Amino acid sequence: MNTVVLKAMANILKSGIPGFFVPLSLLLMGSPLFSQSIYRTACNGNLSRLDSLLQTTSINTLDNRGRTLLHWAVACNHEKVFHVLMKQGI
Predict the structure, then answer these.
(1) pLDDT at 32
(2) Neighbouring residues of 63: CB distance < 8 A, sequence distance ≥ 6
(3) pTM, rounded to two decimals
(4) Environment class of 32 (CB within 10 Å of its CB; exposed 0-12, middle 13-18, buried 19+)
(5) In a domain, 42, yes or no
(6) 36 against 62, higher pLDDT
């Protein structure tokens, strides 16, 4: 997502335009951390890649805003990822 779009979204959110809705997943994708593969993987719902990444990354990893993989899965509406993370003890 380019900088112009992100700035426009930020301005709309700051102005509080009634009836304007921005999905949380779209806001997360605008984050610089979206390029970090484990968060992107949780948001994309790629269970096999997520399992592979969790071999070398703590399931309790936090992004710079304190969000867990579970936050990312829920924000991106990936119920299967949510259940996998819950079973693994997040």
Answers:
(1) 45
(2) 31, 33, 36, 39, 72
(3) 0.59
(4) exposed
(5) yes
(6) 62
Question: Is residue 35 in a domain?
Answer: yes
Give how many domains the chain has, as a whole number. Answer: 1
More confident residue, 17 or 80: 80
For residue 65, give the nearest of 32, 35, 22, 38 by alpha carbon.
32
10 domain residue, yes or no: no
Q: Name the one residue in this structure whose structure tokens are 């992100």.
A: 6
Domain with 55, as residue range(s), is: 22-87
Instruction: Kindly state whether residue 17 falls inside one of the protein's structural domains.
Output: no
Alpha carbons 43 and 80: distance in angstroms, whole number: 11
Q: Tell whether the model's pLDDT for residue 51 goes beyond 50.
A: yes
In 3-state terms, what secondary structure has residue 27? helix
DSSP state of 64: T
Whether 84 and 50 have beta carbons less than 8 Å apart is answered as yes
**CATH number assigned to the domain comprising residue 34:** 1.25.40.20
